[in-house]
């Protein structure tokens, strides 16, 4: 595959460059706005940069007719007829490819994993509308995700994830719903000793919900806290949010928490993040057994492609999504199939 970057002042101009050099079969891998340096740091201009790719060899299907494919004619009239026969299928193929490329750009804009789009383009059912092929591919992937028990069927829930995704607020929502809807007795454990504010936030929720809370610093503390709460129906463990790029973070977490089979460990991610970022987070935290995913800040996100892509690629259930800061209201179960349909609708209306 040949990959190249193009840039111009506007999207139509840069797309024209892509089509002129790579043709209509080019795949758009990424697009972004960039600023020129300007003079003395002033008068900066915005330019559009696109990263495009094309197969190094022409694909077997979708062959474009050229003059060498047509038997030679001897008269000028035959030559004119040859040009007519050549142009007609080329025009039709170009229109279809252009529409497909527009749809691909829309999916990329909404953070759908480029690997999914490339896989769909390589599939044999190339005569079907691309939009429908994407929908079918995603729903097929959803059916292949193993069924998991509802979080809370196990006594312990570990909420893990990077900083800033809203783990503590999510813990409060889960606890409040378990108390109000399921009439369960609940307790909190927190390992987030890096930020005093985090402890106080969870302590406030514990006081409002009238449930116990334990702060732990090591594995011995954790096991003692579990013993203290052995009579509870559900214990929610809130963990520290740290920079996921720190390779020691997960290993330190394993020194504090016993990730055993009695617990559901859920990775909490923000729906406002890009696919490449949440995939990097997932790979880091997959060192521990992950039960499912929770996506927060759905109300702040304009695209759900990253969430759908991650769940489908790694075959993980999305247990909950959160839609605001209100406790306990702004959390809900949303089947991945429905989240996918919402994403497709968002893309369709934005075209």
UniProtKB/TrEMBL annotation:
Keyword Membrane belongs to the record: yes
Q: How does it sit in the membrane?
A: Peripheral membrane protein
Residues covered by region (Disordered)? 54-95
Cell compartments where the protein resides: Cell membrane
Task: Indicate yes or no for the key word Repeat.
Answer: no
Alphabetical keyword list: Bacterial flagellum biogenesis, Bacterial flagellum protein export, Cell membrane, Cell projection, Cilium, Flagellum, GTP-binding, Membrane, Nucleotide-binding, Protein transport, Transport
SMART domains with a match to the protein in the record: AAA (SM00382), SRP54 (SM00962)
Could you tell me which InterPro entries the record lists for this protein? AAA+_ATPase, FlhF__GTPase_dom, P-loop_NTPase, SRP54_GTPase_dom
* Start and end residues of each AAA+ ATPase domain: 153-295
Q: Which residues form a coiled coil?
A: none
Q: Tell me where in this chain the SRP54-type proteins GTP-binding domain is found.
A: 154-345
Q: What does this protein do?
A: Necessary for flagellar biosynthesis. May be involved in translocation of the flagellum.
The record's family statement is: Belongs to the GTP-binding SRP family.
Name under which the protein is recorded: Flagellar biosynthesis protein FlhF
| Lineage, top ranks | Bacteria, Bacillati, Bacillota, Bacilli, Bacillales
């Amino acid at each position: 595959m040949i990959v190249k970057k193009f840039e111009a002042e506007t999207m139509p101009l840069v797309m024209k460059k892509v089509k002129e050099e790579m043709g209509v079969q080019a795949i758009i891998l990424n697009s972004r706005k960039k600023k020129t340096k300007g003079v003395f740091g002033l008068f900066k201009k915005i330019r559009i940069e696109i990263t495009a790719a094309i197969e190094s060899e022409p694909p077997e299907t979708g062959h474009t007719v050229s003059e060498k494919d047509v038997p030679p004619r001897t008269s000028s009239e035959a030559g004119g007829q040859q040009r007519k026969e050549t142009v007609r299928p080329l025009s039709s193929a170009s229109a279809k490819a252009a529409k497909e490329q527009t749809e691909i750009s829309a999916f990329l804009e909404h953070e759908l994993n480029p690997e999914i789009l490339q896989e769909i383009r390589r599939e044999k059912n190339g005569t079907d509308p691309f939009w429908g092929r994407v929908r079918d591919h995603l729903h097929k992937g959803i059916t292949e995700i193993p069924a998991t028990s509802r979080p809370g069927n196990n006594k312990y829930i570990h909420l893990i994830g990077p900083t800033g995704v809203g783990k503590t607020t999510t813990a409060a929502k889960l606890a409040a719903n378990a108390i109000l809807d399921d009439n369960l007795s609940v307790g909190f454990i927190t390992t987030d000793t890096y930020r005093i504010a985090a402890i106080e936030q969870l302590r406030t929720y514990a006081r409002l919900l009238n449930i116990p809370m334990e702060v732990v610093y090591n594995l011995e503390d954790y096991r003692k806290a579990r013993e203290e709460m052995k009579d509870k129906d559900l214990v929610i463990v809130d963990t520290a949010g740290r920079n996921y790029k720190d390779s020691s973070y997960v290993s330190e977490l394993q020194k504090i928490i016993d990730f055993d089979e009695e617990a559901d460990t859920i990775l909490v991610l923000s729906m406002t993040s890009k696919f490449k970022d949440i995939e990097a987070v997932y790979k880091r935290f997959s060192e521990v057994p992950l039960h499912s995913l929770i996506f927060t800040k759905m109300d702040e996100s304009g695209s759900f492609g990253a969430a759908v892509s991650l769940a489908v690629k790694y075959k993980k259930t999305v247990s909950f999504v959160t839609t605001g800061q209100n406790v306990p209201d702004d959390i809900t179960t949303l089947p991945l199939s429905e989240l996918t349909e919402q994403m497709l609708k968002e893309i369709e209306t934005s075209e």
